[in-house]
Amino acid sequence: MAHSMTAFTRQHRETPWGTLSLELRSVNQRYLEPHFRLPETLRNLEPHYREKLRKAVARGKIECHLRFEQDDTAKSLTINHTRLETLAQTMEAIQRRLPQSSMPSTLALLDYPGVTASEGVDNDALHAEALALFDHAMTDFLEGRAREGERLAELIRERLTGIRAQVADVRAHLPAVLERQRQLILERLEQAKAELDPARLEAEMALLAQKSDVAEELDRLETHVDEVERQLTQKGPVGRRLDFLMQELNREANTLSSKAVVTDTTRCAVELKVLIEQMREQIQNME
């Protein structure tokens, strides 16, 4: 199945410490060119992301942007009740021993080492969440490339149908085209009142027929069309192969144009070039 190089996905994941957001977007590129923007605390995930992309995607300029918005609750303080109880007992003992001494304030107690602690972020668990988010985003990203690729394939198949119709039209008119050209030459010679050498005339007619015969070009056009259709059903990247086939199709269309002896054949050759160019533009988006 053909895949497009253009796709976009945005995914979110809630964690106990905040929200992870990840964007993947890709555009046309001859080779695979990934770019990453990650928070410093998650920078070490880049090699993992890069490897997953390399295994799943062959071509395209891909931007990966990961954000982490930490919740205020993840910054909240917790009280060490055991430590606080020990401190209270110590203060009571001091009060009994030294009644004139003053007791510390509540804020002073909270500042005492070991009484409070920040919950913080579990980095290992957060990294695991970020990896899972990337896998989920990649699934949606690849599905988007596949859907877009199928739409491109449909557009290309429509043009292939048009090429087949043009080839069939030239084939149907080919005998009449050759006969018409023969009559034109005979008329011109008659008008010039030239003496006709039957043997020379037949040789000229044979040479003209050979130069005007485009059956071989039509056969190759149909062969290339068949190959394009086959490539559209293949697994893996097919863009470069299809681009090469567009060059071959265009070569045959140019030859057909150069051999055209009537306006109908010229018109068909021009239409073929238009259809081929339309396909080439779509194929530039294919992986």
From TrEMBL:
Swiss-Prot/TrEMBL cofactor(s): a divalent metal cation
Transmembrane regions: none
Domain Endoribonuclease YicC-like N-terminal: 3-153
Keywords (A to Z) from UniProt: Endonuclease, Hydrolase, Nuclease
Hydrolase recorded as keyword: yes
Endoribonuclease YicC-like C-terminal domain boundaries: 171-287
InterPro entries: YicC-like_C, YicC-like_N, YicC/YloC-like
Keyword set includes Transferase: no
Similarity comment: family membership: Belongs to the YicC/YloC family.
Protein name: YicC family protein
Taxonomic placement: Bacteria, Pseudomonadati, Pseudomonadota, Gammaproteobacteria, Oceanospirillales
